[in-house]
Amino acid sequence: MGSKKVHQGNLETVSPSTLIADIFRGRFTGILTLEQGKRKKSLFIKGGSVIFADSTDMEDRLGQVLVRGNRITEAKITSALEIQKKEGSEDKRLLGAILVKEGFIKPLELVWAVKTQVEGIFCDCFLWNEGSFAFAEEDAPESWPVITLDLSMPELLRMALNMVEDPITMANLLGDFSQLIDVSAKWLDMVEQFKLKPLEFDLLGRAQAGADTLATLILASPYPAAETGRGALLLSCLGVITLSPTS
Questions:
Q1: How does pLDDT run across 98-143, given as a tens digit for each residue?
Q2: 197 Cβ partners below 8 Å, 6+ apart?
């Protein structure tokens, strides 16, 4: 495996949303691991985009995702796990390969399950507000024993933000409402690249038209405050706008 540079800290001072945004904007490659006691979740990131995720939580396991989706029975999962145990491999791709090889699921069902699994882990990580983190930068992700996906970061972020319903949680994610707004010089390219939704495009237009602080942007928006907050945070995470504290 390639060389590593590890960044560590705690989630009480740096939120997962900030970490993920910084990694995406910097197009970094590596593994972001979050821990709470015995719980551990990892996001495998290539060029700023999530390509796989892993978790110690039972409900996040591939088998459980398939069972909840009515794609397979518990008995068949148990059978596949026994085969995997005999193989003695820690390769994350093995269970899925066994399920397909044994005819328990179809290849497209495996793709659906892994995508659903990764989305669920990502959304849960995004909302953690306690614990520790470590981001290990790597230069050889092809050595990772995982099934790699081509996921849209904007869509993952939208999915995670749609789970935020508590206004206090949203306020904590946004931070100080007096933060100044700066629009990226590359905003026009980003509109097409990230396929901005009408609300997000509207907020970008208002920022360009003179909404100079986060508070001004939210108060001027015709959309509900919660939706506006999600849109503003998405634009910030993607780097379309920059939020910075007043001097």
A1: 999 999 999 999 999 999 999 999 999 998 999 999 999 987 777 7
A2: 158, 231
- Residue carrying structure tokens 């100080």: 176
Residue 135 and residue 7 in contact, taking contact as beta carbons nearer than 8 Å: yes
**Owner of token pair 């208002």:** 206
The answer, yes or no, to whether residue 4 has pLDDT greater than 70, is yes
Place of tokens 């994610």: 173
Q: How many Å apart are CA 122 and CA 20, to the nearest integer?
A: 10
CB 95 within 8 A of CB 81: yes
Query: What is the distance between the alpha carbons of residues 160 and 51, in angstroms, rounded to a whole number?
Result: 16
